[in-house]
Amino acid sequence: xxxxxxxxxxxxxxxxxxxxxxxxxxxxxxxxxxxxxxxxxxxxxxxxxxxxxxxxxxxxxxxxxxxxxxxxxxxxxxxxxxxxxxxxxxxxxxxxxxxxxxxxxxxxxxxxxxxxxxxxxxxxxxxxxxxxxxxxxxxxxxxxxxxxxxxxxxxxxxxxxxxxxxxxxxxxxxxxxxxxxxxxxxxxxxxxxxxxxxxxxxxxxxxxxxxxxxxxxxxxxxxxxxxxxxxxxxxxxxxxxxxxxxxxxxxxxxxxxxxxxxxxxxxxxxxxxxxxxxxxxxxxxxxxxxxxxxxxxxxxxxx
Length: 303
What we know:
Layout: H1 7-50, H2 55-60, H3 76-107, H4 110-125, H5 128-146, H6 155-179, H7 183-191, H8 196-207, H9 209-225, H10 228-233, H11 251-259, H12 268-298
């Protein structure tokens, strides 16, 4: 038997569906148009910058002094400073975050997990300016006791604290990836006589590796974009160096420095903000593309 609903109901349902469809499409279009607007505004000013400064000078000059009388527009010192922070924070955050994720997913019972996981996530809610002062007033004095020659403003202190800041991102996302590994795989490992450590490292971690790598990529992208901690703890000295004990300047810190000054709009100094932002955008985009390729390569699908 077929039940027929009144025509009026069908019309009302059609209208509702169209409204919902329009709202959802509008949300997507707002996101897409906002992204396009950001890219256009960023690269329009960037192209204007490169009308006055050659790309070769921008990429090869070893000095960055856009606010001085003797102007140089070489981005290498800023890239070197960003690379030091990225490498140092990764050394701190990736192993600690992954170890925390393995502990929470494989060793901790539900009571311990309920206590430790929120405590870890508290770190993600602390304002970055607080982290910056923590680096300046606690980490740097501590490092000075071990390394007396270290500068007050140094890349090492900033790297450590940026690493601490992104630990929750690594641990939380990695734990989700490890927990989602089918229970049957773990039980099969235990049934074969493997220890908990062997199951964790030889079965669960390889099976959830794509999710773990994705968490690494997101955390690295977050570290590259960090501003306040490196501005407060690492100083503002654009220097082409690989020494983490010295003061450096990152790309984001340089943008903040120029933006907060009395830089008139439309000047070459003003346009450097967009040129550095475009370089940061390209680097982050390349890292994300690489991360997606690696994630697809190691992705495991279970039925």
